[in-house]
Amino acid sequence: MYDITFSAEVAEARTTGAPIVALESTIITHGMPYPQNVETALKVEAEVRAHGATPATIAVLDGVLHVGLETKELEALAQAQNVAKLSRADLAACLATGGTGATTVAATMIAAVLADIHVFATGGIGGVHQGAETSFDISADLQELAQTRVTVVAAGAKAILDIPKTLEVLETLGVPVIGFGQDDFPAFWSRASGLVAPLRMDTPAAIAKAHMMRRALGLPGGQLVGNPVPVEAEISASVMAPVIAQAQAEAASQGIAGKAVTPFLLARIFELTEGRSLSTNIALVLNNARLAAQIAGEMGS
Ligand code: PSU
Ligand code: MN
Prior knowledge:
With 301 residues, the chain is of the alpha/beta class. The chain has a single domain (4-299), classed as 3-Layer(aba) Sandwich (Indigoidine synthase fold). The chain has helices at residues 8-16, 26-29, 36-50, 71-79, 91-97, 105-114, 132-135, 140-147, 163-172, 204-216, 237-253, 261-273, 276-298; strands at residues 4-6, 20-23, 54-61, 64-67, 84-86, 101-103, 119-121, 151-154, 177-180, 199-201, 223-226. Strands 1, 2, 3, 4, 5, 6, 7, 8, 9, 10 and 11 form an eleven-stranded mixed sheet that branches. Strand 5 (84-86), helix 5 (91-97) and strand 6 form a beta-alpha-beta unit. Helix 3 packs antiparallel against helix 4 and helix 11 (237-253) crosses helix 12 (261-273). The site of manganese (II) ion has 5 residues, from helix 12. Pseudouridine-5'-monophosphate binds at residues 24, 26-27, 31, 87, 104-105, 123-124, 126, 139-141, 158, 259, 262, 266.
């Protein structure tokens, strides 16, 4: 059997029935540099609290699944070296061997359901990588959305991904993709991708109601909410395009493959934009935390 350790505030929320928002940890260990990663994680948790919900950052520490991290644990994880990146394929092995790892969107969704949490905020999801027709690199996050019932709030997908193909795969898998307050599916650093999201909703209550309707129908799988980055933090796609192209060319020439691809690209993009992309990333994660807290507040247990 496995054990779940809840943080004190998550344990308290579970007894009172207060809304809880799941948060991933791969964004901390593999998605942002130290110390901005820990600063952001703490701000994101505060933003969830400020909007009436309890944050539950998820990770595996020494073979124990943690749902909610105490601040000390979060600070240690953010500075730890060689933390494993855990997706669906890796979670059980990490628990079984007593390892330490950070959960991706897919693994965070699995843990959220085990802890009876329905809403999850992140930055961007994994998806179909550019060049997937030869690399076959498609994130396990997409399959997870098809089978695990969690509403995931993200700022869309980064242009390191092939956004049209990502939307096609989500459609094939029967995942509702919802534009929040706009028709366009957002493109992470930019508000618009030029592609219309299949669904549009304008209130947190509408998103919560659709989640509960899927549950009532017995449909497995979650929903993906595309929440556009705030206008003042946006970076245009034309500014990001050459940076992304350079990071991708370096990944190809260095033979980066498998689960190393996304962390490599994210790290290079941060270096190449000298922090500008990082400020945008922080702004959009906070924005997603706020919306997720509001959705969780509208969700019946
Ligand atoms: N995209 C981002 N930031 C991130 C990630 C993706 O813009 O931090 C992380 C998430 O944890 C996501 C994972 O679940 O990368 C996807 O990795 P892969 O593409 O290897 O499935
Ligand atoms: Mn991949």
